[in-house]
Amino acid sequence: MVNVALDAMGGDNAPAAIVQGAIDAVKASSEVKVFLVGKEELIRKELTACSYDEKRIEIVDAREVIEMAEPPVMAIRKKKDSSIVRALQLVKEGTCDAFVSAGSSGAVLVGGQLVVGRIKGVERPPLAPLIPTLKGASLLVDCGANVDARPSHLVQFAQMGSVYMENVLGIANPRVAIVNIGAEEEKGNALVKETFPLLKAASQINFIGSIEARDIPTGKADVIVCEAFVGNVILKLYEGVGGALIQTVKQSMMTSLRSKIGALMVKPALKEGLKAFQLEEHGGAPLLGLNGLVVKTHGSSKAVEIKNTILQCQTFKNQDINGKIKKIIVKEETSL
Amino acid sequence: MVNVALDAMGGDNAPAAIVQGAIDAVKASSEVKVFLVGKEELIRKELTACSYDEKRIEIVDAREVIEMAEPPVMAIRKKKDSSIVRALQLVKEGTCDAFVSAGSSGAVLVGGQLVVGRIKGVERPPLAPLIPTLKGASLLVDCGANVDARPSHLVQFAQMGSVYMENVLGIANPRVAIVNIGAEEEKGNALVKETFPLLKAASQINFIGSIEARDIPTGKADVIVCEAFVGNVILKLYEGVGGALIQTVKQSMMTSLRSKIGALMVKPALKEGLKAFQLEEHGGAPLLGLNGLVVKTHGSSKAVEIKNTILQCQTFKNQDINGKIKKIIVKEETSL
Predict the structure, then answer these.
(1) Which residues, at least 6 apart from A297, have a Cβ–Cβ distance to it below 8 Å?
(2) pLDDT, chain A, mean
């Protein structure tokens, strides 16, 4: 059984969509148990009308809520009875294998490190979402957890990202590339120039060199390594350019009677095709390298995304990702 | 008369498309004279079949060509008789007002600084392309000239970018924003945190704060300030996500007979609508802050882009952009 602590109070659609996601998850998999953490009366209200296996959904009362705008470190330290801190403690004490939240990214990142803690040897835990490409999806590490990271951090991001892609997505020998502003080794800023030879020398990854941002959406690499500021820009620009283009496509098709009729005819196919290019379709972003799994899902997550993220936790546990990360990090440490 | 030195040997479609662009430009404007710099016999061959005002197209023979893969500093120093160096010298000596090239970015950037030189007081000249948004276009400074820039450089980028947008695009009081990973002032990496208060204090710009990458395509700011590594990622990801999405749209519409028929009906409107979202539609990128105008156009530029870039040089000169940049930089220096 995989036990998942779920932040019932986090995200734009909490608690209704979160609770619904939990119900859908336990229906979809008999191996999942969900601990709904948050204000008991609100959670119970959402649950009453529904039928589900009561042995596999448990409510854990938490009286406080960490808001999106709160400074994360302060919030984690002060709000001991918040849904995020209580849920993280369930992971820390071993009751749960994983924590899932659509709430404050900052609080999830800080809480993950302060409450659950890092795997021995891991210097920084990166946030690693899957981003859509023409060939499927690539893992973007780090998309926002550690700004101004050091070269040694990026090498670990590459190693942990490779374990994830190989075992969760089943991609053998995943191609690792570092985001750069040119294909040649001598290109780049100080961080990339210093990191490049370290990645080249790292024995346990399939490093293919630099990747220019224009080649990320074509799926040229499976693990895209970068510092968190750059990663965050990539993730958010994906969303921004995608949104603007889809809006442009829609508006263009409304300009004449002819195009309007055409639009009706292409709509179903277009909707289906563009679905694969939406970030939300690719589940939550794990914070790699912690003693337990911590997953941040989009603030706008609906029930289906919550369900998918819970099922993702099952794969993560069954494939023993953390055991494999421990091995690769320890091996690297002893070889130094 | 505006005299433009044009690198006839640079870009994927040189010299044919470049020469054609020059002919189209002198036809479109009676105020333009073009100096075609490169191998005379090749240029002459392209010109023979065409009719044009011979007083306004002049060939300047240059026997060497700087290739795309050459290390820029070495190439500029050694190849004194290259089309890029010879054309830059025409600007340096005052024969020409502007230099336009679709050739090696590195060589244009290095050559611009080494041969033409910076305006007194300008610390670093940024490369500043216009990028498409839902509201028109924004200026991205810097998209690749100065990696690992300092805060004071970014403040000058904001000032020079404002002059450009106000005078070339006619946007009164252009909104300036710094690329960041959150909207709050305390967010960001070390560079952004240090630059933010300086931009806030700068008197001659309309600084509106941070911009997240997702808001760039919506046109939330007119001048987007960032360090060159981040700017290059933004520019290239625009291209990459745009290309991948358009490919996805096309493929989706080919999946059924119904969608194929619809595709025929929406195609003209779609083509027109998406045109505005293509980087090539927005001309070349000027290197701001040099003693003369240096413009880099896309390597894949066709005649129409070369023509538009030459006409852009006319606006740049007529609006006395460099005179205005000198004033704003000197004023800032004396006020310190």
Answers:
(1) A11, A100, A101, A102, A283, A284, A285, A305, A306, A309
(2) 93
Q: Best of A233, A251, A258 to disrupt the B interface by mutation (most B CBs within 10 Å)?
A: A233
**Is A190 in the B-facing interface, judged by CB distances under 8 Å?**
yes
Is this model's pTM higher than 0.90 or not?
A: yes
Report d(CA B87, CA B312) in Å as an integer: 18
Interface of B with A in 2-61 (CB under 8 A): none
Taking alpha carbons only, the member of A248, A239, A238 closest to residue B277 is: A248
Least Cα distance to A70 among A103, A43, A40, A92 occurs for A103
Residues 6+ apart with CB under 8 A from A173: A166, A206
Question: B216 to chain A, minimum CA–CA distance in Å?
Answer: 7
pLDDT tens per residue across span A241-286 = 999 998 998 998 999 999 999 999 999 888 888 888 887 778 889 9
User: What ipTM describes this predicted complex?
Assistant: 0.92
Whether pLDDT at B322 is above 60: yes
Residues in chain B: 336
Interface mutation vs chain A, best among B131, B229, B238, B281, most A CBs within 10 Å: B229
User: Token pair 């010299």 is at which residue?
Assistant: B15
* Burial degree of B25 (CB within 10 A; 0-12, 13-18, 19+): buried
